Amino acid sequence: xxxxxxxxxxxxxxxxxxxxxxxxxxxxxxxxxxxxxxxxxxxxxxxxxxxxxxxxxxxxxxxxxxxxxxxxxxxxxxxxxxxxxxxxxxxxxxxxxxxxxxxxxxxxxxxxxxxxxxxxxxxxxxxxxxxxxxxxxxxxxxxxxxxxxxxxxxxxxxxxxxxxxxxxxxxxxxxxxxxxxxxxxxxxxxxxxxxxxxxxxxxxxxxxxxxxxxxxxxxxxxxxxxxxxxxxxxxxxxxxxxxxxxxxxxxxxxxxxxxxxxxxxxxxxxxxxxxxxxxxxxxxxxxxxxxxxxxxxxxxxxxxxxxxxxxxxxxxxxxxxxxxxxxxxxxxxxxxxxxxxxxxxxxxxxxxxxxxxxxxxxxxxxxxxxxxxxxxxxxxxxxxxxxxxxxxxxxxxxxxxxxxxxxxxxxxxxxxxxxxxxxxxxxxxxxxxxxxxxxxxxxxxxxxxxxxxxxxxxxxxxxxxxxxxxxxxxxxxxxxxxxxxxxxxxxxxxxxxxxxxxxxxxxxxxxxxxxxxxxxxxxxxxxxxxxxxxxxxxxxxxxxxxxxxxxxxxxxxxxxxxxxxxxxxxxxxxxxxxxxxxxxxxxxxxxxxxxxxxxxxxxxxxxxxxxxxxxxxxxxxxxxxxxxxxxxxxxxxxxxxxxxxxxxxxxxxxxxxxxxxxxxxxxxxxxxxxxxxxxxxxxxxxxxxxxxxxxxxxxxxxxxxxxxxxxxxxxxxxxxxxxxxxxxxxxxxxxxxxxxxxxxxxxxxxxxxxxxxxxxxxxxxxxxxxxxxxxxxx
Length: 778
Description:
778 residues; Spore Coat Polysaccharide Biosynthesis Protein SpsA, Chain A
C-alpha cells in the first residue's frame, strides 16, 4: 500500500538535509512518495537544497510544495494531508529515519483493527521515548543511530501496545481516520503544540485507537528549551485539551503516572547493553554493596572482576538477600547498574534440598533474557544445582570457583573445634556433626557429594585460589581437573611521613586481630591473648567485630576499633603503630583477604599451620607459623619473643614482604587471566540465543522489575518534572512565572528529594548567577 511521507520544513538547513538523506536511503520511493513542503523558510539555502534532491533522484517519487506564505506547522501538515490520497506519515524535519522503518510502521498499523495512528520509538518523543520515559535520551557513546535502531528491532517484543495519543515527530495516520475525523485543528492550534493530541483524542472519540511501534526507532533531535512565549502557548493549549477532552486528558495523565509500557523501555535499556558485549552470569550466595564494611572475600573478588572487566563484558549477579528473603539479579554495564527481582524465596521441601524446579525455570528465563554467554559460579549456598543442567542443555559454559568447601559439605568450612579440620574423608562419620549442626537424623553427605560430583563434571573449568584447597577437594573428587588461580590485590597508598600523635600507643607493642572474629576464625585465641596481655606492655587491637559482644568494647590493654572499609585498613594499622597481626583462623581458609591486607600494610603475621594462609605465609616467609594444637599462652609467648627480639628476624620478615609486594599480582593481572579464560570458553561454545519463549520470558522478567521498584515511576516523574522546571527557570520567562512553577513543584512533590534543590536553583539562576535586572516580574 502506497504511503505519502509529509515533511514540513522551516529553516534548520543541516537537520533538513540529514532527514531527507535518511528517508531517501531507507525508503522505497519508487513505491512511496516523499512530499517536501517548504513553509516559506527564511534561510535562502533551503529551497535550492530541496530542488537538488529532486534533481539528483529523478527516478524517485520526491515532490515539493513551496508555500507562498508561512502557514506554520499545523497548516503545513494539513496541506500535505489534503494533497495525499493515501495513508500519510507526518515526519519532522529534525528526525533521522532508519532501515525498514516504513515497512515496520505500516505492518504495525495493520496488525490490529480500528487503528488510526502509529508512533515509533525514539530518543526524544515523550510517551515514545526510550529507554527513559518522558525524557530526551542521549545516544550511548560509540553507537550510531542505525546501530541503535538495529538493536531495538532485534530485541523487540513486537507488542504494539495502545497509547493514549500519538506523537507528531513521526506519526503514521491511516487514510480512513483522516477521512472520518478530518485534519488537524489549524484554527485552535495553528502555532503548534497540542494539535496531534487534539487529533488523537478526536480519533479516540470516534472509536479508533493509537499504537506504539516498539520494533522501530527514529532519531529525533528536538529541544527541551522553550521561550516564555512557547511556554505560555503550551500551557494554554494544554488547558484547552483538558477542558475539551476531560476523560482523554485524564487517561493520558494516568498513562504517564502508571507507565504501562515500562517493559518496552526496560527491554530497550537492556537490549542496547546486552547486544554490545558478551554477558557473564555470576552466581553468589550473597552480594553486599562495596560501600559496606567487612565485606566477605568472595564478594570483594567479584567486585574486582567487575571493576577490571566492565568495559569488555556485562556482568549479571544473581544472589539471595537473607534480610528480604528474595533473589535478585544486578546487571553491571559499562556505566550503569540495574537491579531486578529474580524471585521470592523458593519453597523447599527438605532442609537441604539440592534441586528446585521453580529456580530452574527462572534460570532458564534469565539465561535467555540476558543473552548469557558464560556462567561463573562463585557460591551455591541458597542456590540449586539445576543451573548445571540448564547450562548443559543450552550449551553454555560454566566456570565454578570453589571459594570454600560447600561442595563437600554445607557446613562450608569443614571446621572441628578440637582438630580444626574435620575428618571430611570419612562421610560415614558425619552423622553426629549433622545431628548437632543441622538437627537432622539422616546423613545426607553421600547424596550431597554424589550430586555435586555430577555437577562438577558438567563444568568446563573448576578453579580454586590455593593449592591447599585443591588438595582437600581432590581428596574427595579425585578425577576432576582443578586449576589454581590466586586472587589479585591492589596496593593501597598509605599516608606518607605520618607523625604519630598518640605517644601512648607508640610506647607500647601493638598487635592486631583483623576481620570478623567468629569461633572458627579464632575467637578463643582473641579472648586468651587479651587475658594474657592484661598486665603487660602489649596492646591488642581488633579491627572488625567479635562473635562475642563482650569483645566489641575496649578494655585494659585492648582497643576495639569496629568495622572498617577495606581501603582504610592500611592507614588504620599505621595510625595505631601495629607491629604484628594475628590470623588465628581454625579452618583451612582457601585464600584470605585479611592476609593480603596485612601484607599490603607490610606487617608480619602469626598464624596456624593450616590452609591457604599458612601456604602463602610459607611461600614468602612473611611471618611465624604455629602448630594447630597451640594454646593462647603459646601465641602470647611467641608475641613476647618477637617483641624482645624486635630486630633481625623481624626485619627480615618485613623485607620479604616488601620484595613480594614488588611482583604481587594485581586485580588487573587477575582480571586478565579471567578475561582470557572467558573468551576462550565463549569461542569454544558459542551461544545461538534462539529461544521460542523469549518474549514471554522478557515480559515476566520486566514485570518483576515493577515489584522491585513500587516508587520508581513516581520518583522518575519527580525527576523529569524537576529537570523541566529547572530548564524553564534558566530560560527567559518572567520571574513571577518561574517562581510559580517552583512553588507548584514543591507543593506537588512534598516529599521529593528535589523539593529544596529546585528552590536553590531558582535563587541561584535568578538572583545570584544572572543579573536580576533582566528578569521582569509580571
